[in-house]
Structure formats: C-alpha cells, structure tokens
Amino acid sequence: MKKVIALFLLCCVTIGVSAKHRVEPVANFHHYAAVQGGTMEYVGKIGPYAVEFTYTNLHMGDGAHLMYRYTKIKVNKGEWIALRYTGKKGKYQVWKEYINGRSTGTFTILWTKQTITGSFVNAKGKKYDVRATRGNDNWADAGDSPF
C-alpha cells in the first residue's frame, strides 16, 4: 500500500517537472505485447544511514523515476525523495536531490542491475559513501532499462 501511495505522489509531483529534466520514454512504448519495465528496488546505506532506492519506469509517456528514502530515521518524515538525472561523470551517473524546490545534494553513482555504489554530497559539502544491493522487485528485464 505504501508503494502505491508513493507512486501516486510521485506521479503528482513529476507532472510539474519541466520537460528539460524528464527522461524521454522509448519511442515504441505503445507495444505492450512484451512485458516491460516495472520497479527496481535496492536496499543499502548512505554513510551510516539505512535507505531504500526505487527506480520506476511507468511506460505511460511520463518517463522514469529514481527515488530514495531513509528507513531508520525520520528525515523528511521517511518520505520518498525524488532525484533528477543531470548527466554522466566518467562511468558514473549524476543525480541531483531536491527538497521543496531547493537542491540539497548530489549523488554520483555507478548503478547496475544488481548494485548502486558511489557517493552522496549534501548541500553543506559533507560526503557519504553510497552502497545498495537490489532486492526482490517486479522488474521485467525484457523491457526498457536505465543501463
């Protein structure tokens, strides 16, 4: 139920995101004969803090979304924090964190189907290691992929 609520809230929030920051859907996303996309879930840590990451590709023209939340502490009341893809830095992906419209940190991560590794630098410049492993999810590997 929490995932459904989080997905609904994510859809509401991303409607207002400018087209510049959206990930474009695959050109043939209307072909539903093959199972595609879903949600990838990862469990790990940012520094000493336990977190969950979720990547969702909805296949309904609104692109893909990477979010995370703290699981043991109540930062932002345990709510999902959406990330915006901003580009690559060598082999790493760069994702910006925004809370209430303000940039509050940057993830520089190597993201594979099984792991997320790299670093997070908060708005004050403090750097944390990021490590997460993919758990059980409903992703159908035959479809669109961020890799």
Task: Provide a descriptive summary of the structure in words.
The protein is mainly beta and 147 residues long. Helices cover 9% and strands 46% of the residues. It has one helix and eight strands; from the N terminus they run αββββββββ. An eight-stranded antiparallel β-barrel has the order 1-2-3-4-5-6-7-8. A hairpin with a 2-residue loop joins strand 4 and strand 5. The longest helix is centred in the N-terminal third of the chain and has 13 residues. The chain is globular and about 40 Å long. The two termini are 28 Å apart.
In short:
It contains one helix and eight strands, in the order αββββββββ. With 147 residues, it is mainly beta.
Summary keywords:
8 strands, 147 residues, 1 helix, globular, eight-stranded antiparallel β-barrel, mainly beta
Count of helical segments? 1
How would you spell out the order of helices and strands?
HEEEEEEEE
Based on secondary structure, the structural category is mainly beta
Strand order of the largest sheet: 1-2-3-4-5-6-7-8
For the largest beta-sheet, the strand count, sense and barrel status come to: 8 strands, antiparallel, barrel
Tell me the β content: over 45%
- What is the strand tally? 8
Provide mean pLDDT, rounded: 75
Give the overall shape, derived from the CA principal axes: globular
Terminal CA distance reads 28 Å
Which blocks of ≥5 consecutive residues have pLDDT under 50? 10-35
Helix content: under 10%
Radius of gyration: 15 Å
